[in-house]
Amino acid sequence: MWNRVVGLIIKEILVFIRDPRSRFVLIVPPLVQMFIFGYAATFDLFRVSFALYDENRTYHSREFIAKFIGSPIFRLKKEILNDSQLKDEIQKRNVLFVLHIDRRFDRDLLSGRSGKVQLIVDGRNSNTAAILTGYANQIIADYNVDWIKKSGRIPPPSQITFRAFYNPNLLSQWFIVPGLIGILTFVVSAMTIGLSIAREKEMGTFDQLLVTPLRPIEILVGKTIPGLIFAMAQATLILLAALLWFKIPFHGHILLLYLGLFFFLFAIIGIELAISSISSTQQQALLGVFFFLVPSIILSGFSTPIRNMPEPIQYLTFLNPMRYFLVIVRGIFLEAKGLDTLWDQYLPLLGIGLVSMSFSWFLFKQRLY
After folding, report:
1. Residue range 209-224: average pLDDT?
2. Secondary structure (3-state) at 290
3. Alpha-carbon gap, residue 70 to 359, rounded angstroms
4. Which of 2, 202, 303, 316 is 20 to 30 Å from 37 at the Cα level?
5. CA end-to-end distance (rounded Å), the chain
6. According to the model, what pLDDT value does residue 124 have?
7. Residue ranges of domains in the chain, CATH in brackets
């Protein structure tokens, strides 16, 4: 039996290796997507353009403005002189916000009152506006601390200091890039396994397999293992890029990561084989894979927290293998979690894999006979 299966595995691997288009699809797009997501899909803000509307124009207001100009996050683009310019700059998207210093800023500070500063933000992108406001509040808090020290005034009764565990600099790359191991591995397995049987049917070579000594279960195994090998190799490539190029710290155990990766692939391969089994052409299989891939990414917690979703949708995410794998890969990367804390993520993946593989085997036999 195993000699026949190994022969089929070698044949499937050679088909992908010898086809230039298959080699291109397996190597180039995932690498390009990794760098695009790693650098472009970020929640951090850099070089944010802002306009300055300083009605005070004193030493103290300039000292306050220097905090913003000296920050690597903000970049002063223009100084405006009246309220009409203020609205125009934001409306035309020339700047993301306007820093408005009240004309009584220095008098209020020297008399012990709060200096009035207004941050007028472009709210059309609410997520960016919220992040921007957080950065600005941090700069204002630092200025307040410096002012209290220099003026010798009594500090406020309580002060808040921030400290972040696992990601001290709050870099979104540390959150996004490990998750790309799951997403891009998903894409590679979908392109290899999800289209494999449908491609054989469309090319007319599937009937040739049926007249060989190979049994249906051997055909299914022979179609599965090459895709698993390619997906594992792609995941290893992305892992190396995360460690060596993006410098993401890895605190956990590598074997636990590959165990989670194997369970994750075991779960999604069954679904992809089921799609490929019921599809007569590669176009049908591609549409089926796309129909499954997009909701899986959206409902995985990759970019938006699952707890922010409506409650019925949260229950739906329990059927999504990527939800569990993202918890595993991020927990191992940043938190050094072990099997004692991640077992409740491995077991659902194993359960989904057993169900999906059984279902794909059932559909494969039904279409076969």
Report:
1. 72
2. helix
3. 60
4. 316
5. 21
6. 66
7. 2-41+171-368 (no CATH), 48-151 (3.40.1710.10)
DSSP assignment of 230-241 equals: HHHHHHHHHHHH
Extract the runs of DSSP E, i.e. beta strands, from 250-313. none
Instruction: Please give the torsion angle defined by the CA atoms of residues 217, 271, 287 and 224, in that order, rounded to the nearest 10 degrees.
Output: -40
CA distance linking residue 279 with residue 290, whole number of Å? 13
Phi, psi for residue 333 in degrees, rounded to 5: -65, -55
Positions of E strands within the chain: 48-54, 74-79, 97-101, 117-121
SS3 48: strand
> What is the DSSP track for 63-122?
HHHHHHHTSSSEEEEEE--SHHHHHHHHHTTS-SEEEEE-TTHHHHHHTTSPPPEEEEE-
DSSP 319-341: G-HHHHHHHHHHHHHHH---HHH
The rounded Cα 227 to chain-centroid distance in angstroms is 23
Closest to 260 (Cα-Cα) out of 320, 197, 324: 324
Residues in the chain: 369
> Which of 134, 234, 154, 152 is CA-nearest to residue 192?
234
- With beta carbons less than 8 A apart as the criterion, state whether 44 and 172 touch: yes
Burial 150-164 (b: 16+ CB within 10 A, else e): eeeeeeeeeeeeeee
Q: How far apart are CA 262 and CA 94, in angstroms?
A: 48
Q: Cα separation of 86 and 129, whole Å?
A: 17
Most confident of 14-23, 83-92, 143-152, 306-315: 306-315
**Statement: residue 157 has pLDDT above 50:** no
Residue 356 has what pLDDT?
A: 86
302 DSSP 8-state letter:
S
Q: In whole angstroms, what is the distance from residue 199 CA to residue 4 CA?
A: 21
pLDDT at 81 (0 to 100): 84
Check residue 361 and give left, alpha or beta (phi > 0: left; psi -120 to 50: alpha).
alpha
pLDDT beyond 70 at 207 = no
Q: What is the pLDDT of residue 158?
A: 45
Radius of gyration of the chain (CA): 28
